[in-house]
Amino acid sequence: MPQVIPRSRSWHVSTARCIPCPHAGCSHWFESLPGLKQHRSSAHNYSFDPTASANNGHDYPVPTKPAPGIVRDYHSELTGKLVPWHRRLFCSHYILGDICDANGQQIDRSTLPPPISKKDPNDWAPYCDRTQFETVEFLFKNAEMSASNIDRLCDLWGGSLHTEEGGFAPPFADHKQLYRTIDSTPLGDVPWKSFELKYNGDRPMSNIPPWMDQTYEFWFRPARSLVANMLSNTEFNGEFDYVPYRNFSKEDEKRRYQNFMSGDWSWMQADKIAEDRSTHSGTFVPIILGSDKTTVSVATGQNDYWPVYISIGNIHNNVRRAHRNGVELLAFLAIPKAAKKYVDDPVFRRFKKQLFHVAMSRILASLKPSMTTPEVLKCPDRHFRRIIFGLGPYIADYPEQVLLSGIVQNWCRRCIAFPSDLDGGGAPRTSELTQALIEEFSLGILWDEWGIDGNVVPFTEDFPHTDIRQLLAPDILHQLVKGTFKDHLVEWVGKYLELEYGKAGAKERLADIDRRIAAALPFPGLQRFPDGRGFSQWMGDDSKALMKVYLPAIEGHVPDDVIRTFRAFLEVCYIVRCNVITDDTLMELKDALNRFHQYCKVFKDTGVRPEGFSLLRQHALVHYEALIRLFGAPNGLCMSITESKHITAVKKPWRRSSKHNALGQILQTNQRISQLAAAHADFEAWGMLPVSCLAYLPPSDGQFSLSLTAIHTSTHTGECDVHASSRVCSNISTLQARNRARNALALTIELGIPSLPKLIACFISEQLQPDSITPSIVPPFTGRLKIFHSATATFVAPSDPSGIGSMRHEHIRAIPSWHWGPTWYDCIFVSTDNTREGMLSMDVAQVHCFFSFIHTNGQTFQCTLIRWFDRIADEPDELTGMWMVAPSFLEDGSPHHAVIHIDSIVPSAHLLPIFGRGYILPYVNCHNLLEVFRGFYINRFADHHTFELAS
Fold first, then answer.
1. How far is CA 210 from its chain centroid?
2. 274-289 pLDDT, tens per residue?
3. Which residues of 50-66 are buried (b: 16+ CB within 10 A; e: fewer)?
4. What is the distance between the alpha carbons of residues 348 and 367, in angstroms, rounded to a whole number?
């Protein structure tokens, strides 16, 4: 274990230069927003008002530049000019796409965006002032307050302002006035429309089924208007790609796939569009669609809704995952229902499919003219461009993929592999192949031998350059998380244990697995399972959380090949969820898939799956490489996007409705939320609302960044403040923990670590003399300290759920009594050797205390007391692929402690015990786990950021 921790790169993280100048070609960085503003005024003097910012303070287009060491090749016709290969390494001009004026006349690319007319900073119309707007936003959007509660609040508010002299009135008299104000907001006002469809085919002579006479109503918003609003949203400036492109590593010229426009599909689609010369210099905007039926209530009747969502492929994946107005509710489809005796009627089933495709064609009809003739629209950088629409990927689960592509249930939607032999593979499904087969064979042969429903004509046939069979997006949630992991592998483990040990033995071992899972240490963002995996209804988040802790929990109860199967599968899951996927990553994906299929045979050999593995969800994994090459990183097209959108677009509006004819109320709620979001963005663009500094922080393309921004503590012993500040560039105040030691000697007694004063002295010596081989001896430190219960780490984690600029917060806690109960001491990675890479550059430690003190020279040090863990080996465990560590001890047998600067901390580490073959004792829990066991795995599957760090 190293005795010297390298001095941090920056002593004052809160004043680090972390705000870049957004001007193209300018390399200046600044500590604060005023510094940036002063620089822009002097170095980049523009003729229009800088306060009229189009993107969080930016006065000009923010190009989406490749990261250092990356070479980018743009499409030559739509809408950039090809940079010759020998010039790419030195080219500093990044193409944004050809711009034009409002009439479509092409203008020079160096032209600044049209100036914004002056606006009165007090013009909050239709709201009276900022207070009224923020009141509306808080009550309707954030608090989701009911109409009756709004009325009650307004009465109380008015009463508190009333005096004998008259006083003041509250912002609103009642909920009706509040709703009228929102409805009068012009921005984001895309009204709902509807149309009706009904069956018009052959009818029986008598006993006509009721569904044939029923009228089906569809509600939608014009797709063209929604897309135009997205394009004009200045919040997307800097996170928007105007041109299909291909990224290459400068060193080895290997491809890098990230956002949607970096994939091959957008490039090939641009080639097809460019065959018409009238489209040259246009900007291609792919339309991404998604739909998924959802149930809002079962107890009060089967209340099902079928929403359709729309997005565009130009915005970056992190924006789409975080929604941020990049995913909009497009329509609600009718759900045809019939009496049980008609449910399996072939005519009714065919009608339902045809009804869907006819409706989708009408809903998207407003986009069709601009798929062949460019339309002039404003873009996030406030420039006008000639926009060409095109239907892109469709996000859906397997049942809807069957409906979309017109295939037969249990057939692959990507290839013609036979259901009983999916591993045999087959030619890819295409529109040309399907049409040729329909012309050649009867409907029966098409159904039985080719898996094609010849009665279905996909709605995409009505639009140019579109083949739905090649546009079905990968479904990570249902194919990997819920499907292969939960429905297959976890179930197979239970069956194996039952076959091997009998029902009684299997229950005993499953109970031990549950206890192991329940004892897992807490970790930021990790759901805990206090009762193990034995819950009745599995949700997607449950499966995702269980994946992270399941592998060590089953070790010792199952054969090694089962462990290897889970390891390979988890590696597949984490690779496909990476924000950036390279050619090397695709080779790793292929290797992990091969190992998964190789070791998965253990379930066949042990009798769990004697029939083999012709399973659709596992077969889908073989298509992931091709889909990544087509559409970029799959995390931007995952079903999790639509499922999480259900909450805000359907479920929450339904809960706040009267439940009677709720659809109309759901539509109105979504309309008002869209208007409030558009108004907020407009006020923010004019500088009338505060802007998050995170907008200035571009994501580090695959690179790690860390900033410990503040130390938050509770106002009383045992409870920590878990508030995550969104302003990593701001000076955040810190609160000292109460009822804790005030000096080093008192802290020594409190923690029971006699060597603490000497450890602090060694730390001071190393910090003051970082380059000295034999630092001078400093007497033991006995001065005053300030104790804190937690620290907030802020870093770039684009593959995990994160905020603006892919920034993520983690709280690292060191609390002697969590909620007046047991201790909570988190584990961390510590940077110890900058000359090495990966895990060999870091060590693991447990945090025991955060504190700061002022040295005699006036310098303030922010430190943490840690206990070291030693690596058991200099390579990961061959079976699980995880690094192993054990608590470190000194020669006298005492725990190995140290004091380090907080800048040496890398984000949290998650440790899981090496359980072996023994059963976990009943008294072991997450609070005493680190004291009971002597060996631990570093859980590389805790999150995607750790997977990259600890691989």
1. 45
2. 888 888 888 999 999 9
3. bbbbbbbbbbbbbbbeb
4. 30
